[in-house]
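Support request, please re-run this one:
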Amino acid sequence: MKKSRTKPVAAAAMILGCGLLALFIAYSTEAGKEAAFLDRTGAAVIWGLPVAKLIFNVAAAGTVGPLALALFALPPKGRAFSKALALAGVSAVLWTAAAAVISVLTFHSLANLPLFSEGSGAIFVSFLTDVDAGRRGTLTVLITATVALLCFGIQGQRAVAVTAVLASTGLIPLALNSHAAGGANHADSTVSVVMHMAAAAIWIGGLATLVLLRRTLGTELLAAVRRYSTLALLSFLALALSGVAAGLTGIGTIQGLASQYGLILLAKTAVLGLLGLLGALHRKWILTKLESIPGKARTAFATLAVAELAVMAAGSGLAAALARTPPPTVSQAAPAQVSLRVPGFVDVFSSWKPDALWIFLCAVAVFLYAAGVRRISNRGGHWPAYRAGLWFTGVALLFLVTNGGLRVYQEYLISAHVVTQMLLIAVVPLLLVPGAPLTLARLAVAPRQDGTIGGAEALGATLRPVLHATSAPYFAAAGLAAVMAALYYTPLLDYSSRTQFGYQGMALLALLSGCLFTASLARAADGPGPALAYRLVTISAVAALYAVHGWALAQQADQLPDSRRQEWLITVGRPWDQPVPAVVEPAGMAMWIIAAGTLLVAAATVLFQAIRRHDMRARNRSASERIHDLVMSSES
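Re-run finished. Output below.
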């Protein structure tokens, strides 16, 4: 019994030691600098914060990872599923404690007070209620404590899915407290950091859960590892993209790599590369061995997984040190103001602002669609080339809108902001919806039989109910009107130009509402009749909606300023090549032009579909009548 416990304890000690050692080496220089400024806090606060952040990261992974694995890889009625939820609950308790410790230590660090000093209690309560950093810390504790309670009481996959989403939101407040949230001298990279933390939590926590549950899984280990391998691959891609985006924002220039922040970032990059190699070994070697010789392969899997977890722990230690190390862009002078002018067509392609989330989504959209087409082809089926061409063109346009020149200029110019929204609402859906991704998924992805959630189940539980609820065009048009009102007459208008979270919310709302409206029109009418009339009337109503919004943009005075205090000029005018102070922006005209073009295409498509279906029915009816006449004549 003692021997059976020795190896797990030694493995856990090695993993923890790797994390602490990496943290100590990476943070020792910065800790010495902080000791000179925080002379009253002491080493307990200076070193306690990064150590608590490391524990926070590990506990978050131990909560989010098992929940994600329970959803996508573990049968809901098995023992492994229940144990994964119990593991998530224990980790959530530790996560709550780490979040509380971070709140306490952050207060003492900001106030430069020693721990438990006289009179600090009342100030601490004020910090939790009146200061943004304190309120966010309190929110994190509340979220993690709720997740802990849910993990010990939930049953069923819907409840697990809700708990997993809630647990993921527990990563947001701490990111808002970090230097990733930006400021006058530092760009906002909050979404990239949250994406980075969530991907790491799923990857690390999922692997640790598999190691702990490998004996419980028994013969189901192969299927669980295979499914986890897909999650790990997606997590690796998200981790790499978000890390590059946040790192580039932090270092600013190539000279920033020579700073303490840059050196830690380079070390993290090396760790990520090593993890990629270990992950490739899992996919190429372990999965093959688990399929051929499962008994021996379990030991090989555990050995390689422990080594990978040790490297992951070192990466987590570096991440904790990086979170406490100011990036070079914080200490640099404020960036020079961009020379603003109304952008031309070339600027859309010559200026870039990479967005990790949309790069990830576009890459996954291309890969999954291509994989689905290939799977259908391998089965001897056929997928129309024009649908694939429309899908890939739509994804390319989506990538350009969310990462190109419009992404840059929408922070400064309301016309670029309007063009961005209209492309996401009206143009991109006209390309994506005819690509029929849900039909492709239904043909290519087989439903799972063991109760776990795969691609087919995820689509059936999320997108298909929404499409069914908005199948009538007028319901989808009402949703589009509500989204337009939210985008232009709420704080989201200004928030989406200043912050990553605001921009992502605007982009997702615009794209989803546009796709739902286009999908409602894509259901072909049976010919002249009520169905066709409803679609044409709905298109006319949406045209009126765009006309009103365009008129409002053309009539309004200057809008709210953006984060750089540059006025948004919102009237119709030209020429395009003049500096901004000399002209007014054609925001209203941009909305009218894009709306007119896309609605004309939509109306023509609806009419074409109706006429085509009507003709096909007429031909089928005529053929049936001829067959009937032949039969009758032969009988007579």
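The longest helix spans residues 587-635. The radius of gyration is 28 Å.
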